[in-house]
Design goal:
With 206 residues, the protein is α/β, with parallel strands linked by helices. 45% of the residues lie in helices and 14% in strands. The protein is built from six helices and four strands. Helix 1 links the parallel strand 1 (4-11) and strand 2.
Length: 206
């Protein structure tokens, strides 16, 4: 029996202020350490299960579009060619979606792009899955497609909200710089609600 632990992330921002591959590796390490007390106890490290962290990047930079990269633990011999049994306990898969005009737009990249698109109607998605990928539209599959449609809508709304916060922050900064207003004066001029002011103050400090 092969036992795996899977983590799947949908990432809307490829540059959130840190390298997301480091975050993915961090998540993978957490999934390994979290097995203590549930999968293994004491010194029974042989029971540790392999973990996968799969990241689906919806809006990567152009040079990363329609690409799939894998990061894993590998053994390198320094002195003598001595190989131990493979102990690759963690694999990171970075899937970056892109435009259909790209020559690599096919297979899993095309499938995920269609499923996570907020511009394609659910019925159209089902038709494409049936005709292009020969996926039979059972009740279960239709339910999964509907769930993916809801996910894509949620990701889009989250992106819009993040964009609004970024714009508001820039507006505050511009008023402070160009009109020489204090932070509080700038937020008052922009009618920033009291409940949000501490959040923007913390963002400005960063």
């Amino acid at each position: 029996m092969i036992r795996l632990i899977l983590n799947v992330e949908a990432q809307n921002d490829f540059y959130p202020g840190y390298p997301i591959i480091k975050r993915a590796i961090y998540y993978g390490n957490r999934m390994i350490s979290a097995q203590y007390g549930t999968v293994f106890t004491e010194s029974h490290y042989e029971k540790i299960r392999k973990v996968y962290s799969i990241w689906i990047c919806l809006d990567p930079p152009k040079y990363r579009q329609n690409s799939i990269n894998k990061y894993k633990i590998t053994e390198e011999t320094i002195i003598r060619t001595v190989k131990e049994k493979e102990y690759d306990l963690m694999t990171i898969i970075m899937i970056c979606l892109g435009t259909k005009e790209d020559e690599h737009y096919s297979g899993i990249l095309k499938l995920l792009d269609i499923l996570l698109s907020s511009e394609i109607e659910p019925e159209t998605k089902k038709q494409i899955l049936k005709e292009d990928f020969e996926i039979a539209m059972t009740t279960e599959i239709e339910s999964e497609v509907a769930a993916m449609c809801n996910l894509s809508d949620g990701i889009e709304r989250k992106g819009e909200e993040k964009g609004t916060k970024k714009t508001k922050l820039q507006d505050i900064q511009n008023l402070m710089k160009n009109l020489k207003l204090s932070m509080e004066q700038a937020m008052t001029a922009l009618e920033v609600p009291e409940v949000d002011r501490k959040k923007y103050a913390d963002m400005l400090k960063k």
